[in-house]
Specification:
Structural class: alpha/beta
Radius of gyration: 24 Å
Largest sheet: 6 strands, mixed
Number of helices: 15
Number of strands: 19
Strand content: 15-25%
CATH class of the largest domain: Alpha Beta
Strand order of the largest sheet: 1-2-6-3-7-17
CATH topology of the largest domain: Aminopeptidase
Shape: globular
Distance between the termini: 39 Å
CATH architecture of the largest domain: 3-Layer(aba) Sandwich
CATH superfamily of the largest domain: Zn peptidases
């Protein structure tokens, strides 16, 4: 959902944004890049440029054109036509699914990235958003970070595997999808419903995790294993109304305002699953000092209100991982300046922890609002999405590749407070993990914004990270 994506990117990269110190990880020069591109890097750059320069916005873009371009790349590299398909549930909403066949010893590994991008108006940018520009150590263009870098890396790496004669012990499936920015209904959700066999897998890699840079240093490499669930409620009070010259206490706006005031003072209880417990435990080592001790205490089950309050006060990045959150986002009431209001309404948007239910949250709201006239009604359909297990296989592989490329940089499991297409996979029983190995500056996040850009160095590093990680996950020791 587009409104959550910028928030999601902030949270992915801001693992320890509030920390005073950073890890002793390796320094990253913004302008550093390969002196001369290797053939697989040159291929990546060409694919990346091709994707950036195909407009895939919802308004006028063509996702099918991008999907067909990637299909041609694979077919020209020798992939059988039966293993490369473009499927479009609607005009301009094409998806590409390709397969590198392995021995079949294990179920497939799905490599997922979306081709669509959010809107970008030329007058808002200092450069053309649909022309790849390499300048001052960065690639500029809409989709350079979200999410055409991963899409290009997956395609380039799949071609590289075939050229090398690599035979994995499981099929590798690359799915490049439409409509992620619009809710995924013409992309992953449609593929799961109509073509499940094409993308069915034992596990999946997707966006949602990445590396964070602070003051030029690598702070951490995150792996996203869960997401909060988007749920909106309508709060409504109805009243007979009357003339404003004859006020009474039974006022729809007063009822609603009183309930919202009580909600403002309320915090949902701390509820850490394995993903968030490890997030706080591993972040504690980065932060250090007494605050690090508080992080560690919360991770280990300490629910002392003072300790929890200190952790939550560090910033919304941390508070949002402690608990379900609900916040009013819209308000309306009354129908005339000289009349008592007959209705008062508010929209409250909640981000619900995996494992909690829509009805649990609704009942909590009713209890906290503490006013019977306030009717609480869910607005959207609740879409539960369980956390993906942090298995030894996935964590071990991510940590092994991370340490090989960036010694000393810790791996931090994270829960996104926004949404990615991984939620559809998890609900369908396919554990999904967000990890890219592409580092970005936590103080300069431009996804969905003006002059979106990716460090040149980070693109090629991410390609190598994903190349090694996929190989590790598809080869028996």
């Amino acid at each position: 959902m587009p409104s959550a994506r910028t928030v999601r990117r902030v949270l992915v990269l801001s693992v320890v944004a509030a920390a005073v110190v950073v890890s002793p990880g390796s320094r990253s020069g913004a302008g550093a890049q390969p002196a001369a591109l290797a053939p697989h890097q040159q291929l990546l750059r060409e694919i990346y440029q091709e994707l950036i320069e195909i407009n895939t916005t919802n308004s006028v873009g063509d996702n099918t054109k991008a999907a067909e371009a990637m299909a041609r790349r694979l077919l020209n590299a020798g992939f059988p036509a039966a293993d490369v398909q473009v499927l479009a549930p609607a005009p301009r909403k094409g998806n590409m699914v390709a397969r590198l066949r392995g021995t079949g010893a294990r179920r497939p590994l799905l490599l997922l990235a979306h081709l669509d991008v959010v809107e970008a108006n030329r007058e808002d940018w200092s450069v053309d958003p649909f022309k790849l520009l390499e300048q001052d150590g960065y690639f500029y263009g809409r989709g350079t970070t979200d999410d055409k870098a991963m899409a290009a890396a997956f395609v380039a790496n799949l071609i590289r595997y075939r050229q090398e004669g690599f035979v994995p012990d499981r099929d590798l499936i690359v799915a490049l999808t439409a409509d992620e920015e619009g809710g995924g209904h013409n992309g992953v959700a449609w593929l799961l419903k109509e073509h499940r066999a094409l993308i069915d897998a034992e596990l999946a890699l997707n966006e949602g995790g990445g590396g964070s840079l602070k003051n030029g240093r690598r702070v951490s490499n995150s792996i996203q294993a869960s997401e909060k669930i988007f749920q909106t409620y309508r709060l409504e009070v109805t009243n007979r109304g009357g003339h404003s010259s004859l006020p009474v206490k039974d006022n729809a706006i007063w009822h609603l305002a009183g309930g919202l005031a009580r909600l403002a003072e309320f915090d949902f209880p701390v509820n850490l699953d394995d993903v968030n417990r490890q997030y706080f435990e591993r972040s504690a080592a980065l932060i250090g000092g007494s605050l690090g001790d508080d992080f560690r205490a919360v991770a280990n089950g300490n629910r002392d209100p003072a300790v929890v309050a200190r952790v939550a006060a560090v910033g919304p990045v941390f508070n949002s991982r402690l608990r379900t959150t609900c916040v009013p986002t819209r308000l309306e009431g009354g129908h005339a300046d000289n009349a008592l209001p007959q209705t008062a309404r508010a929209v409250v948007n909640c981000r619900v922890l995996p494992g909690e239910t829509e009805e649990d949250v609704r009942q909590t709201l009713i209890r906290v609002l503490a006013n019977d006239p306030i009717k609480v009604t869910p607005v959207n359909k609740f879409f539960p999405s369980p956390a993906s297990p942090l298995t030894a296989e996935i964590m071990g592989a991510v940590e092994r590749v991370t340490q090989a490329l960036w010694p000393g940089v810790p791996v931090i499991p994270t829960m996104s407070t926004g949404a990615t297409d991984s939620r559809y996979l998890r609900t369908a029983g396919i554990p999904a993990y967000g990890t890219s190995g592409m580092f970005g500056d936590i103080d300069d996040i431009r996804a969905h914004g003006r002059d979106e850009r990716m460090l040149v160095q980070s693109l090629y590093e991410g390609q190598e990270y994903l190349y090694r990680l996929v190989k590790l996950l598809s080869s028996r020791p």
